Amino acid sequence: MIKAIIFDFDGVLVESVDIKTKAFRRLFEHEGKEIADMVESYHIANTGVSRFDKFRYFYKTFLKRELRDAEFNDLCKRFSALVKEEVIKAPYVTGAREFLQSRKDFFDFFITTATPQAEMEWIVEQRGISAFFKALYGAPVKKEDAVNDIIRRFALMPDETAYVGDALSDMQAARANSVNFIARVYEANKEMFGSLDCVKINNMTSLDRAIKSLG
């Protein structure tokens, strides 16, 4: 029986993936359309990877130049300024707010996200949902390590825990810890998850049924 649910945030609880896609593209559009296209494609394929790791990857792989500390810090600051207010205003994934409210006494809820810890704490506070979650883990903590800590710290069994995510990094973090995985599938990631063997839902109105299917 499932006792705890770990949620990714962007694309799982809130429809905010496009907000961050546009922000990444805006930060690199001065490098030209080809670079901006590669940045956008990489982000969409790796939504669960932190912006810190993405910026380093973009410079090393696409731009092929050193990312100096001052420039890195500036990118992080500008990205945060572009997305924070928009994420607060973004709509919930259908059924997400209702599920948290109606099932808070049945499950322990957690968040693990690639968004920086302090920023994520501020966002959930501003959205008025922080009280639903027993703990929140953001970057620089890796998702795999966050899941491991949740299981250990809260004395959970892996088979009593479900992880709801929308990225391959979410599935990898769950499976590395022998935790049940549920994929939230939508237009941008449906090809990625299409052939993978996991429970799939389109939105949070199906989450109760998906949880029951896990036994």
How would you sum up this structure, described in words?
With 215 residues, this protein is of the alpha/beta class. It contains 10 helices and 6 strands; from the N terminus they run βαααααβαβαβαβαβα. The chain has a 6-stranded parallel sheet, sandwiched between helices. Helix 9 links the parallel strand 5 and strand 6. Helix 4 packs parallel to helix 6. It is globular.
Distance between the termini: 6 Å
Strand content: 15-25%
Q: Tell me the number of strands.
A: 6
Helix content: 40-55%
Please state the average pLDDT score.
Answer: 95
What is the makeup of the main sheet? 6 strands, parallel
Strand order of the largest sheet: 3-2-1-4-5-6
What does the overall shape look like?
Answer: globular
Keywords for this entry:
10 helices; 51% helix; alpha/beta; globular
Could you provide a short overview of the structure?
This protein has 215 residues and is an alpha/beta fold.
Task: Note the topology.
Blueprint: E1 4-7, H1 17-28, H2 33-45, H3 51-63, H4 69-89, H5 96-103, E2 108-116, H6 117-127, E3 133-139, H7 143-153, E4 161-165, H8 168-176, E5 180-184, H9 190-193, E6 199-201, H10 207-213
Helix pairs in contact: 1-2, 1-4, 2-3, 4-6, 7-8
